[in-house]
């Protein structure tokens, strides 16, 4: 008891905590080290003789001989055994010092670059002016956020007789037949070279420098590209940050402001019914279920519609866009997610927001709903009335009347300025960490790096959750550090089990030094595949397409181990055609899925129902479990009541609640149907169950209030 009392006294001493901090033990590590040290002393039968003597002197009260502070050397020695990094903390801090990113790019610092910022909204011609300079230069590089954008510039350049190569994570296309490097290159921003000199560089969508996951790629391009002229395109909200960053490199920023080329009007009325659709309309949804529901309702009215959403292959997106844009095609309506916000040229007359809230995943990994930001709303709305299209005037509205006021507020607000630029640890930095901490896992190395990293106020360390997820997934597979790092940076959606399983198999076979052949991949994916018969099969085909993308991405990093890139690219094109067939028949697939589903099943894909509506009142649900039908309706009712997102003003919340109060029971059901929270089939099932329960003397929702009412009624009858 006396030993424990003195150990706790040691732990609480401010002087000891200060000494711990000086030796690299922050509050968290200090606590963990103390718990381990206390356990070692209390439970070990072989405490060292010198520590035993010190403890004895302290416990016996020999003030001249012992004091609790004397335990610190032994505590620190124990802490270094469980946290080996403490021995090399100074070295680790130097490696993870991210305060001067401009110094990482000596080639760029060796030249005086001219920085031109083309600032303006969507459809203002800002990128056009930058590309004109790119085309007139002797050499140039275009860096964009999407494969579709890189492919568009690649096509434009070669059509203008300016030889240009295409470089993405999964593809290299040379302008010349002999595969010689062209003086111009269009690439996805992660693939840009910071060592090759160019006359002109174009960095598109610079506001994405704030992106929590990918922002580091824009920071790297902005600070590191070796070009005499850097042309930056994006929102005016990024001007101040870019100017500050360039001040640290000694480079001035020349700003060119642009205004929208065609008028854009926010209408004073909502669409309210799909019967009011006109040619050139685009309905924007924020979930696949809404896409399926709306597209089916449109085709039920005898109208054809094109469908575009994020997980479709680029080829399918382009074909759907081409179908919608073709004046001779009967398809005049587009149903899309915010994937249309960039990368596709579309002839849209009117943008109609099916909803102004968007499913998101919070920092805890919980699903919730947030209002779309002003930046997102402007980006999407700006697609209407594109300059040079058949519609010279763009319009924007909402599907539902009560969303229109909120949309007008969102669009009228100023876009908040971009505050910080993303950074990401490099493979070299992680290798240096591994040298000092040879027994640490890659996931732990990343954690330690982030915890020790020091960043300037203009920067932040990007979210590394996806990296850590893959690192933990393949930790048991024997790989060297560099290969392990590459596998963990593979671009995949960790919510797709089939793709994650495939990466695991890739890594396992790679570790055995067995090449991943075309035949192996065909067996794994069950190629050849046929056109999908329902939505579930379409979703699987999209996952297989992502697997082929993953193979191609790895084939450029491990050529010998992924040798059949040409064959895989051929079958990927065939798969793209198969997916296109499925998308063209999407309403048939929806009908097949719903007829095959169990009675009362609401969803085609269990993607985001039910969703929590606010952070405060988050109703977190598992993706893999669906609620019973009666519960589902009560959840749906509550979800509608909590529709406003966390950033929505209290005035908006008040008006929403008033609207809901004024709605009758039938209109609430219609509203839930419109929002995709309920399907007709589910509603029929719920009504049937409610009627059955009512006939049996029970009320459908089983609330306490209903039970009390029921007991009162029963009492009256007895009297």
Automatic annotation (TrEMBL):
Reaction equation(s) it catalyzes: ATP + H2O = ADP + phosphate + H(+)
Q: What class of enzyme is it?
A: hydrolase
Where does the record place it?
A: Mitochondrion
Query: What are the record keywords, sorted?
Result: ATP-binding, Helicase, Hydrolase, Mitochondrion, Nucleotide-binding, Transit peptide
The source's domain of life comes to: Eukaryota
Q: Name one GO molecular function term.
A: hydrolase activity
Q: Does the keyword Hydrolase apply?
A: yes
Q: What is this protein called?
A: ATP-dependent RNA helicase SUPV3L1, mitochondrial
Species the sequence originates in: Myiagra hebetior
Question: What gene codes for this chain?
Answer: Supv3l1
